[in-house]
Amino acid sequence: MKAYIGVDLGGTNVRVAKVDENGTILQMVKEATEIEQGVEHVVAKIISMIERIDRYADCEGIGMGVPGPVDTVQGKMVLATNLPGFEGYPIAQKIGDHFHLPTFVDNDVNVAGMGEAILGAGKDEEIVYYVTISTGIGGALVVDKKVVAGKNGHAGEIANIIIDRNREKVNYLNIGAVENEASGTALTRKGRRLFGEDMIAHAGDVFALARQGNSEALALCDELAYDIAVMFSIIAHVVDPAVFVIGGGVMKGKDVFFEKMERDFRSMIHKGMQTVKFKEAQLEEPGIIGAAMLPKAYLK
Amino acid sequence: MKAYIGVDLGGTNVRVAKVDENGTILQMVKEATEIEQGVEHVVAKIISMIERIDRYADCEGIGMGVPGPVDTVQGKMVLATNLPGFEGYPIAQKIGDHFHLPTFVDNDVNVAGMGEAILGAGKDEEIVYYVTISTGIGGALVVDKKVVAGKNGHAGEIANIIIDRNREKVNYLNIGAVENEASGTALTRKGRRLFGEDMIAHAGDVFALARQGNSEALALCDELAYDIAVMFSIIAHVVDPAVFVIGGGVMKGKDVFFEKMERDFRSMIHKGMQTVKFKEAQLEEPGIIGAAMLPKAYLK
Prior knowledge:
2 copies of one chain form a homodimer.
Chain A: E1 3-9, E2 13-20, E3 25-32, H1 39-51, E4 62-66, E5 70-71, E6 76-77, H2 91-99, E7 103-107, H3 108-119, E8 127-133, E9 137-143, E10 146-147, H4 178-182, H5 184-195, H6 203-211, H7 215-239, E11 243-247, H8 254-266, E12 277-280, H9 286-298
Parallel strand pairs in A: 1-4, 4-7, 8-11, 11-12
Antiparallel strand pairs in A: 1-2, 2-3, 5-6, 8-9, 9-10
Helix pairs in contact in A: 3-9, 5-6, 5-7, 6-7, 7-8
């Protein structure tokens, strides 16, 4: 059976795995990224990690997921906030030349979305939209099992979509950007304002209060549901996907907000679009499995 | 040179043309649709119009643009508000079987977008987003010269995108839907409220007042610019196109609102997305030329 090398390069950790064409992880190694020691240090680390994989040279190709927008044609990061020095660095070429293997790079959310579209919750559909709602919010459009990355690798940068222009300015994102209103970070911020920092360490504490019937927490979760529904309705009207695959930690609160979210969403879309489904992400390691699927998708 | 039959089937008129592969219209015929006489009457009319085209049987295929979402695989309209009776009718099969020619159907906005992507303002780009701002607002995503029509043919139904949830309810669309806030119809409605029905026959009258320096008209046009900018920023974050191609009658007022629109838009998108261009639609007859390009695109 064919196998591929997947690399999940994050700001904190690097993981390298050998993955077969069915998405089974055969072997995985993990290390701290140590980006503070420089780009060449990280590249040497990735190379040595790949060399620790059994029979790495027999793999068909290498796929890498990285945090931030990517020029997938050039195999370079366009913006590398969490990996200083990697902006514009020819990472695909460096790794590919070393191993004489075809090497592909894409944004970590795109890679996870492609993994879900090929092997996970979207595997039976031609047009899949993957959304992760976690600390931040990201998305990926996958048409016929290939990511639509956009001209500058910014397709799916849905964090910055305005879901309500009448909000407060939070950071560099747009006023009312969905990430500032409906991410885990946003729910934590809003929860702390209501209940204090001692009560709310993370979004899960707001969900817990809602489950206990706290009316203010329930109102926050209803607002979260509505804001997320607006985001999904916007995406639906642009691409009309067969399925939204949803990942990310905020789904741990799905019992509190998801039913209302879906009801709100369905009230915002046309009758002919109601066949769209919501499915939870299924892959245990979408980042690493999805990365390994890059060569599978592009070498066909 | 290869040639194709294009059919532009509207609620008022039907146009049939022979178009060569460079997009030149070689011959065109036009008639009233007469939908009130029934579907079979309209189909017979289209067939007889095609038969009036010189050497129609030598064409490679037939492409049709229709008003409303289309199941492009089945070749049927999903919703046919302006063509009652055509919902679910196997129009592609009926026409194709009669002429023994491959026949394709798509939404009229998708067809125009594909025409612009193949032959018009988007011809040098891989990822094109076409928007028409007229009586209504519609869009089409064209990736590698093919339309992404969505699961139910509703991709690009951007009229219903919420650009500001704090507006009034106008019709069946969402509160704050861009078509109710920034289309020609919307500008006419808002202009009439300010200046009276006698002063404002259509959106052009608001633009004319703005050109004369009327401060209320200028404020309306500034609001229009901002609302359209929000819509474009939303689409940009979902698909990151290389170019937005814009058509439709509201562009007759571009001297009044477009510069501000683009400035507002560029303040709402990431630095890495700023290469996106705006171009005006170039084809004189995008509906009919785009329809004729359907067989060209799908028969490859």
